[in-house]
DNA sequence: ACGTAAGCGAGACGGTACGTCGCGTCTTACC
DNA sequence: GGTAAGACGCGACGTACCGTCTCGCTTACGT
């Protein structure tokens, strides 16, 4: 685990990667993700363009690495991992929303029309994964005539992401806790009520 | 108004535009929307590149024109615009789903990871618009402590779009009518229950 | 022969190619052939770099085209093509030397240490070709014990080129006619005397 | 002067330089001198690129060092430096040709179209130097109307180099002794006859 | 023989040229 | 007047090589 002399431990390497991350985010906020060129990033980060390619194959790889670090941070910070009681916003969701609020400018762009389609999808999948974990295996019955669980999960996670985008676009009108509460209500309603059969 | 010598009535013009539409769609299915270049489109359509620019400023304008024609078609074909009874799939929704099924290859790509973010958003807004029309002004109470109607609308339309994407990705496992029914159930549940429940 | 609408007849094309030729020559004089980059050429010629590649694959192709035009010019201007009498400098040789004098700066560099090895070789081959044409088939006997004709031709053409380089390096101390005379003397001596057997 | 702790006596240093020499030569034979990069050399020599720069500033310096060692070897091995009789191939010339034969692959490339212009010139100057030494000061009369001695020397040395290139290109069809004899004949003829004849 | 200074390997980095590609504008000629 | 053909300027791309640098390891040398 504690691998020595890794190239990622090199001070210069860490400095370079960090500056590229910052440049990507700041430029994305300024002009939208797709409009940002690798040239832009390098100039803003004061890094030679060839150096960029020594670390990443394109800007998507840079974004991926950044997102990975975020997810790792979110997952590791959960610590207490309380058994999420239904009808109560899970700590993970609140933490996610707090993180989004902390980088609202960035996420507002990334999830908006000048964003990157796979980015929102990745967040949706994260939400879906958490939903699956928060539920018993067979919490959602799959009776004929009812929407299949897979479709329900997709709908709920999409609804959540939609609510998040709305929240960001409206400039965070309510607290993360309130958002988490509403989101949980909606989710539980859909999953529970449908299962109990209209 | 009925200008005879209209530029768009010219046979050559109509032929050119049509071939460009076809080329855009076929190439998008093949390699994803962003990967399609104007060069590609022109070669596939056997149209000179300069000619493309005489009609559209970029491929987004070409897509927009195509989408406009679709929406016009959808809205005009509804004819009777029956007062959609809740709990029953509205005719407009079924028609939309049938259209998607008819061009599933194209929409699957456009709404997927190689698609175009504003494209899905446009469909979501169309759904949201229909939802607003299908509901009385104050159908959704906005009591404090409850999710605001705007957020609910956003969530429901996002959920619908999510369900549609799921349906396309799974290769249309159920009929448009079934999808419309499920979608309506979910929507009504969210809007109604929230307002009365809790 | 008189092919119409050839792309080389395009005024813009002729202008572009001409400016690239001039840039190549002037820059070669300034800093030596190998040091000249395609960027240099394009900036000096006020031509976009991509345009360069539309015409030539590299600077060697540009040089080749230039040299081809020179050789064509030299061969076509001979007009009278008098039956070159031995012991008298052939008109072609004088014309070649006059051309070299007219572009002495360029050839001095190209044939010097900062030049291009294949360039001198091409001139040497041109001289050798003229020598072959100026001689009857069996003018040079190939008796055993004597240098083979092929080797003699190589030596004489090399000697001629060497003399030319000397002439250019010394800043043209004598007239082209004088040079041609001396060169012819040396050539005839080598070919004739050797054959008559020491 | 006889510094013991010389940097060049270090075993590691000698090993490194030797491997770089070998790599340069083998790679030059394979792909031509200009195409060989310092990276190539270092990889082939299994030497780190930074180490190369600790010894040479570029590949030309490496080549120079190699050539210096060759010339030193040639000049030292002549030993008896007999007063070369005209009409008889001098021992130095034979030794040079034997050396060329021993490394024919390398010289064939270096003197050919993928070679290095200054390399042939250096050999030519070596030949010219030997010619000057082999002749009395005023062996060549400089009467008006006759080619100046400087030009003659240049021509003869160029002719000799040309003959050598021919010999290498033809894959050494005759022995070094035969080549030396022919070369001497040609040289003497040019120098002697011109002065007395005409 | 052994401690140490030097040679060396590894590789990050800034720089610069390369050759390619797509874009959008323009001109010319055809129909 | 719509179109084909295509030259051109522009600018981003990804790659290659250059020369410099810092950091440790290891190794041959000199006392």
Describe this structure in words.
Four copies of one chain form a homotetramer. With 198 residues, the first copy, chain A, is mostly helical. Chain A folds into two domains: 1-61, Homeodomain-like (Arc Repressor Mutant, subunit A); 77-198, Tetracycline Repressor, domain 2 (Orthogonal Bundle), CATH 1.10.357.10. Helices cover 67% and strands 0% of the residues of chain A. The N and C termini of chain A lie far apart (52 Å). Chains in contact: A-B, C-D. At the C-D interface, helix 7, helix 8 and helix 9 of C face helix 7, helix 8 and helix 9 of D. Chain D binds a DNA duplex (31 and 31 nucleotides) through residues 4-5, 7, 10-13, 16, 37-39, 47-51, 53-54, 57-58.
At a glance:
The structure is a homotetramer of 198-residue chains. Chain A is mostly helical.
List the helices and strands and how they pair.
4 copies of one chain form a homotetramer.
Chain A (H helix, E strand, L loop, with lengths): L10 H21 L6 H8 L3 H7 L3 H18 L14 H12 L1 H7 L6 H18 L14 H21 L6 H20 L3
Helix pairs in contact in A: 1-2, 1-6, 5-9, 7-8, 8-9
Chain D binds a DNA duplex (31 and 31 nucleotides) through α1 and α3.
Shape of chain A: elongated
Largest interface: C-D, 37 and 37 residues
Number of domains of chain A: 2
Overall average pLDDT of chain A: 85
* CATH fold type of the largest domain in chain A: Tetracycline Repressor, domain 2
The CATH architecture of the largest domain in chain A: Orthogonal Bundle
Poorly predicted parts of chain A:
194-198
Straight-line N-to-C gap of chain A: 52 Å
Strand residue percentage of chain A = under 5%
Q: State the name of the first-level CATH class of the largest domain in chain A.
A: Mainly Alpha
Number of strands of chain A: 0
Largest sheet of chain A: none
Following the backbone from N to C, one meets helices and strands of chain A in this order, namely: HHHHHHHHH
Helix run count of chain A = 9
Helix content of chain A: 55-70%
Class inferred from helices and paired strands of chain A: mainly alpha
| CATH evolutionary superfamily of the largest domain in chain A | Tetracycline Repressor, domain 2
């Amino acid at each position: 685990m504690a691998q020595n002399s890794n190239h990622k431990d090199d001070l210069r390497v860490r400095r370079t990667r960090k500056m590229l991350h910052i440049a990507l985010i700041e430029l994305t906020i300024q002009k939208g993700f797709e409009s940002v060129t690798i040239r832009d990033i390098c100039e803003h980060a004061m890094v030679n363009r060839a150096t960029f390619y020594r670390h990443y194959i394109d800007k998507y790889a840079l974004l991926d690495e950044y997102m990975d670090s975020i997810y790792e941070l979110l997952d590791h910070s959960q610590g207490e991992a309380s058994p999420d009681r239904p009808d109560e916003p899970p700590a993970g969701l609140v933490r996610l929303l707090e993180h989004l609020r902390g980088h609202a400018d960035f996420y507002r762009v990334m999830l908006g029309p000048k964003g990157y389609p796979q980015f929102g999808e990745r967040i949706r999948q994260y939400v879906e994964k958490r939903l699956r974990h928060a539920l018993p295996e067979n919490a959602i019955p799959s009776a004929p005539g009812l929407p299949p669980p897979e479709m329900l999960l997709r709908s709920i996670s999409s609804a959540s992401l939609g609510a998040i985008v709305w929240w960001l676009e409206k400039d965070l009108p309510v607290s993360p806790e309130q958002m988490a509460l509403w989101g949980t209500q909606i989710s539980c309603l859909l999953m529970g009520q449908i299962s109990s059969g209209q």
